[in-house]
Q: What sequence folds into this?
């Protein structure tokens, strides 16, 4: 199969951890993100930090038809509110769109978000430029917890 044919094949990507057996499913992605956000929400340091930076955020994964909405919580015992509803009433100030394979690489720290944006693999829509500037540095705990959880419970998705 030539490179053009591979590019057009549905769900194909390049790089380690992207073979058909290693494809991230909607169920896995939702479970991983829910677990990671729950852990961060409970953390007395990371929860407030991500909450301060998480101006309403929407991350869309069109290949698996999943949407994640994250915002600072109004409740005293929680730092974050999140849902997986495509019809959320939350008005995002930052919207990120990427396929699940790109998300897996970005969240594991194997692909730089700025490079993914430049190459068109990560699309952004920004209502508040400050939200975008605050999000990626504050998301480091999200990425490290994601990477740790994947290596422990989803090793078929781990990237070396």
A:
């Amino acid at each position: 199969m030539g490179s053009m044919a591979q590019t057009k094949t549905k769900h194909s990507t390049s790089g380690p951890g992207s073979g058909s057996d290693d494809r991230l499913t909607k169920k896995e992605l939702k479970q991983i993100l829910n677990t990671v956000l729950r852990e961060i929400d409970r953390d007395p340091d990371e929860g407030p930090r991500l909450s301060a930076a998480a101006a309403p955020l929407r991350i869309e994964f069109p290949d698996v038809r999943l949407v994640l909405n994250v915002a600072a919580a109004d409740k005293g015992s929680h730092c974050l509110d999140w849902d997986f509803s495509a019809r959320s009433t939350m008005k995002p100030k930052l919207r990120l769109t990427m396929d699940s394979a790109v998300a897996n690489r970005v969240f594991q720290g194997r692909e730089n978000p700025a490079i993914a944006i430049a190459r068109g693999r990560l699309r952004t829509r920004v209502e508040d430029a400050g939200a975008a500037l605050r999000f990626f540095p504050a998301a480091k705990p999200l990425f490290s917890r994601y990477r740790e959880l994947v290596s422990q419970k989803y090793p078929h998705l781990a990237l070396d």
Q: What stands out?
A: The two ends are 26 Å apart (CA to CA). The first strand starts at residue 57 and ends at 61. The chain has one domain: 23-150.
